[in-house]
Design a protein that fits this description.
- The structure holds three protein chains of three kinds.
- By secondary structure, chain A is of the alpha/beta class.
- Chain A is built from ten helices and eleven strands.
- Chain A has three domains: 5-115 and 188-198, Thiolase/Chalcone synthase (Peroxisomal Thiolase, Chain A, domain 1), CATH 3.40.47; 118-184, no CATH class; 205-325, Peroxisomal Thiolase, Chain A, domain 1, CATH 3.40.47.
- In chain A, the strands form two sheets. A nine-stranded mixed β-sheet of chain A has the order 3-2-4-7-1-8-11-10-9, with helices on both faces.
- In chain A, α7 crosses α9 (256-265).
- Chain A is globular and about 55 Å long.
- By secondary structure, chain B is mainly beta.
- Chain C is α/β, with parallel strands linked by helices.
- Chain C is 36% helix and 19% strand.
- Chain C has 14 helices and eleven strands.
- In chain C, the strands form two sheets. A nine-stranded mixed β-sheet of chain C has the order 3-2-4-7-1-8-11-10-9. In chain C, strands 5-6 form a two-stranded antiparallel sheet.
- The two termini of chain C are 12 Å apart.
- The chains are: A alpha/beta, B mainly beta, C alpha/beta.
- Chains in contact: A-B, A-C, B-C.
- Chains B and C meet through β1, α1, β10, β14 and β15 of B and α1, α4, α5 and β5 of C.
């Protein structure tokens, strides 16, 4: 039996780029303060702080420590930092509440994509011997995945265009990584997100959570399927005791074809997928997954079931799934 | 007030990734125009490229065997002027990701085109081209292991200082040092901060501080490293200016020996950029 | 929190350049030793926690992605910690939390660093986009705090060098240590000043290395006579940019120590602990940590009395410590591995503290503002 954990409050910056007037630490300050204020809890009463960011995307080793200055860590707090998307910081925070050692957590994630080199930095995520030296970037990995998927699923580019249209994109002729066109790519922005989780209180309750990872070796993966997303969803459902029916879903489909893959893997057949617009509309990379959780929690009506999903790594290598129940 | 300051900044450095015995052998064989696979002793898959471990199951890889060199294209994407594909080499159970000839389609049979000057890298296969390997194509030679794969990281950034720091730079350009104050604890931070770390509130009031202060502590740096910007040995001091509560790091030089508690003053450069670390060349004894 | 046991641990032979292995090979060496020590197979693990310090050290972003296969993490939950120098410790703490949550039975904690793949000091000395950067590694950062401690306490100047002699003598009995070289006081005093007042032989090396621990639930530990129990575990941080903050005696260190001692029921650490492995990249830091960790009011006197030598009242860093082995991402994990192995009676080396029943592992990082600590006991 898991301990019910509520998403008590959240805050998201205005997701846009560029943002030269603020630093990532200043963005983290804004959302952390806003989320804590909205939670109604005194900062000192929130048992643990979990943050997420990427030094490499920010161009400086140990840059994440600047974020700590903005999180109210005085006096000293129980604190953890993951160099991963914020959705994993939220998972760890949820896990810490499950231990019983903490009753609440402040989760903060931030990232800027506009300050350059995002594509090159993401290339370094790949095997340094046999993949990175080929100059593969994240878009190329997504293209390969999209090709494998449409071949297996027997779909045409129109299906991908349909997803893009719901994110406000007209079809484009410009192929960036076939079959993906410019219309199918995420809008990379700068942003930060903070959540307050609590074992008591108001707000949607997390009924299930799980995450899984696939091999880093692209050739070992079935790129045509969101394998670890499916596995995580199945385990989350088992934890919640739920079937596949949900009323809304926020999924981390940074590239348009990935929504189709996720609909299949997560058994989503409803209409309300990515009511926020999803990452295609605003993708700050390190905060993207946490934003999905915040959006799903914010939109889950009384008694409604919501699924939040995040992906990280090349071609959705690693996936986390949350199942939330709107407060009655 | 001027626009927020943005700095063109490049992170660059060389890296040498050790291959270890298995990848070292695999790349060596590639350099000799032979593509090898290994069979996993746990799950039985024949994988390529080859480490000591199997990427699918985590088990130990065992037997080496020649695979390909021909294969079948399983997925393909045209991107940025070239075409990348997942190629299932004959005899392998996983795909090799590589560059293929333009226009190659899923299902096509391909064979490696070897580079003329192999270096012991994945790019020793220039790309895969349409067709079956011919018997007399580029016969494999004797293989020597490859010890490293080298990379030179070059990451250009346009890093913004933010409006607050930019305003601080404006003052420095004018030869003035500012701090800001926490409305809660009244501590004055130099350089100014967005928020007070102690009180977790925005710092608002700007005040000008003196360019004289005290050396709180220091270190004499005598160690060289890649990308160093100041010639060693140098004295790095923690300086608290009069009017400030916080200290910052800067160079200390001049005829007087550094000592804890030494009174110091800023020595300004004539031409200024806005950076405290440059426009003040160093601190010296008063 | 549910009870958490240490089922096994292992580490690599640390060296300045492990060019005989790739990063994947390095982590597997530690993992294989830990699994063998735990008498478990990779399939027995339910989750993996990886820790490593800045990605820039190896030039690979989010290395857990590339390494998923090598870590045996495919199809499992995998998270990656980065809490500066304390990361090896916070990784072990995270793995303990996984088990403590009741959701996972056996969890692998693995931490590594392969400094030889780049210039380590380059990675430790971030350039500034806004003018000149004066930072020159951790030594430049901590040497001023050492100077302040020396002035404030009036400690004899050879205390630091003698601490280095202790570390190096201890490392001779640890087959995994990087620097294993008998060193006299004169040799330390004669070595060049790198970050005055710290001489070269008073400073840690940069090493390639990895360390791993397998943590398990009470059920997973059933029937085992050589499990150690996690009696306390915490990872904390505090804002560093507070005027007047003492890098050598940070509040977060005292707070974290108080927390784990309370969890473990320890009232007098110097008396009750049988051994401590603490994170001392520079000689004087060790004396400062004795105070911060509540071992003694005067850290330098505690050392001067011989209390922390191998035969003393509280042996500190019988492994040789960070002063002799420093793969930054792994150093905190090595402290936890060593501490746990003393309690299990499974130290692989000549430095086993016989009959150890309670041990402390400590790691710190950043501007002394990140700390992770664990207490291991022979009883749950």
């Amino acid at each position: 039996m898991i301990r019910p954990v509520h998403v008590v409050a959240s805050a998201i910056t205005d997701l846009r780029a560029p943002t030269p007037e603020v630093t990532t630490a200043e963005m983290a300050f804004d959302v952390a303060r806003a989320a804590v204020e909205r939670s109604g809890l005194p900062r000192g009463s929130i048992g643990v702080t979990v943050s997420a960011s990427s030094d490499m995307l920010e161009g400086r080793s140990f840059n994440f420590v600047r974020g700590l200055e903005a999180l109210g860590a005085h006096p000293a707090v129980h604190e953890r930092h993951l160099e991963m998307d914020g959705a994993w910081a939220a998972y760890y925070a949820w896990l810490l509440i499950q231990t019983g050692e903490f009753d609440g957590a402040l989760v903060v994630a931030w990232g800027k994509t506009s300050e350059g080199s995002t594509a090159r930095v993401l290339n370094t995520r790949l095997d340094p011997f046999v993949l990175a030296p080929l100059g593969l970037d994240d878009v190329a990995c997504a293209g390969l995945q999209a090709d494998a998927f449409v071949a297996r699923a027997g779909l045409g580019v129109e299906s991908i265009d349909e997803v893009a249209a719901r994110a406000g994109r007209a079809p484009s002729d410009e192929i960036v990584a076939s079959p993906l066109t410019r219309a199918h790519l995420p809008d990379l922005v700068d942003g930060a997100c903070a959540l307050v989780l609590s074992a008591g209180g108001e707000g949607p309750v997390i009924r299930g959570a799980d995450h899984r990872i696939e091999p880093g070796a692209l050739g070992h993966r079935d790129l045509s399927r969101a394998v670890s997303a499916r596995a995580a969803a199945e385990r989350a459902r088992a934890m919640a005791g739920w079937d596949t029916r949900v009323d809304l879903a926020e999924v981390g489909s940074s590239y348009a074809h990935q929504e189709l893959m996720l609909r299949e893997a997560l058994a989503l057949d409803g209409e309300r997928v990515n009511p926020s617009g999803g990452p295609m509309v605003a993708d700050p990379i390190m905060a993207t997954g946490l934003i999905r959780l915040a959006e799903a929690a914010a939109r889950a009506g009384p008694g409604e079931r919501a699924l939040a999903h995040a992906a990280t790594g090349p071609a959705m290598q690693q996936n986390v799934v949350w199942l939330l129940e709107g407060a009655a | 007030m001027s626009e927020p300051f943005v700095s063109r900044f490049e992170v660059e450095a060389p890296f040498a990734h050790s291959t270890g015995a298995a990848m070292g052998r695999w790349l060596g064989e590639l350099r000799a125009r032979r593509i090898m696979g290994r069979r996993c002793s746990s799950c039985g898959l024949v994988v390529v490229p080859a480490y000591e471990h199997c990427d699918s199951c985590g088990g130990e890889l065992g037997e080496w065997r020649a695979i390909g060199p021909g294969g079948t294209v399983r997925a393909v994407t045209a991107t940025q002027g070239r075409t990348l594909a997942a190629v299932r080499l004959d005899g392998a159970d996983v795909d090799l990701i590589h560059v293929v000839e333009a226009g190659v389609e899923r299902g096509a049979r391909v064979r490696p085109k070897w580079t003329r000057e192999p270096a012991g890298a994945i790019t020793d296969v220039e790309r895969f081209e349409r067709g079956e390997p011919a018997d007399d194509d580029d016969a494999p030679g004797p293989a020597e292991p490859v010890a490293f794969v080298r990379a030179h990281l070059r990451l250009p950034f346009d890093l913004s200082a933010g409006a607050l720091a930019s305003r601080f730079f404006d003052g420095i350009r004018d030869g003035r040092i500012h701090g800001n104050r926490c409305p809660s604890c009244a501590r004055v931070y130099v350089p100014p901060r967005g928020s007070c770390s102690a009180c977790w509130v925005e710092c608002r009031d700007w005040i000008e501080v003196s360019d004289h202060g005290v050396l709180e502590t220091f270190v004499i740096v005598n160690v060289p490293f890649y990308g160093q910007q100041v010639e060693i040995p140098y004295v790095l001091g923690s300086i608290r200016l009069d009017g400030a509560d916080s200290a910052f790091l800067h160079l200390v030089a001049g005829p007087r020996r550094p000592a804890i508690g030494l009174r110091v003053r800023a020595v300004w450069r004539e031409e200024r950029t806005g950076f405290l670390s440059e426009d003040v060349d160093r601190f010296e004894a008063e | 929190m549910n009870r958490v046991a240490v089922l096994g641990a292992g580490q690599t032979h640390h060296a300045s350049k492990r060019t005989d292995v790739s990063i994947a090979g390095l982590v597997r060496e530690a993992i294989e030793r830990a699994l063998a020590d735990a008498r478990l197979e990779p399939a027995d693990l339910d989750a993996v926690v990886l820790g490593t310090a800045p990605d820039f050290f190896e030039g690979i972003m989010q290395p857990e992605q590339w390494l998923a296969g090598a870590l045996g993490a495919v199809g499992k939950p995998l998270i990656r910690m980065h809490t500066a120098g304390s990361v090896g410790g916070s990784t072990a703490v995270a793995a303990a939390a996984h088990v403590g949550s009741g959701l996972f039975e056996r969890v692998l904690a693995i931490a590594f660093e392969k400094h030889s793949e780049s210039d380590a000091l380059w990675g430790l000395s971030p350039r500034s986009p806004f003018g000149r950067a004066f930072g020159a590694g951790a030594g430049a950062f901590f040497a001023p705090a050492c100077r302040l401690y020396m002035e404030r306490t009036g400690a004899p100047p050879e205390i630091g060098p003698r601490l280095a002699v202790k570390a190096r003598a201890n490392a001779l009995r640890n087959p995994y240590a990087h620097v294993r070289k008998a060193t006299t006081l004169d040799e330390v005093l004669d070595s060049p000043m790198l970050w005055d007042p710290l001489r070269r032989l008073e400073c840690c090396p940069t090493s390639d290395g990895a360390a791993a621990m397998v943590l398990g639930s009470e059920r997973a530990a059933r029937g085992r006579t050589d499990a150690a129990w996690v009696r306390g575990a915490a990872a904390m941080a505090e804002a560093a940019e507070i005027p007047g903050r003492d890098l050598g005696d940070p509040d977060v260190g005292r707070a974290c120590a108080a927390h784990v001692y309370r969890q473990a029921g320890i009232a007098d650490p110097a008396r009750e602990l049988d051994v401590a492995e603490i994170y001392e990249p520079f000689s004087w830091i060790e004396a400062m940590w004795y105070e911060n960790l509540g071992f003694a009011e005067s850290g330098w006197r505690f050392f001067d009395e011989g209390a922390t030598e191998p035969g003393g009242a509280l042996p500190v860093n019988p492994s040789g410590g960070v002063l002799c082995t420093n793969p930054i991402g792994a150093s905190g994990m090595i402290r936890m591995v060593e501490a746990a192995q003393h309690v299990r009676g499974r130290i692989d080396g000549g430095h086993q503290v016989d009959g150890a029943r309670l041990a402390l592992g400590h790691a710190y990082g950043g501007a002394s503002n990140y700390v992770a600590m664990m207490v291991f006991g022979s009883e749950p």
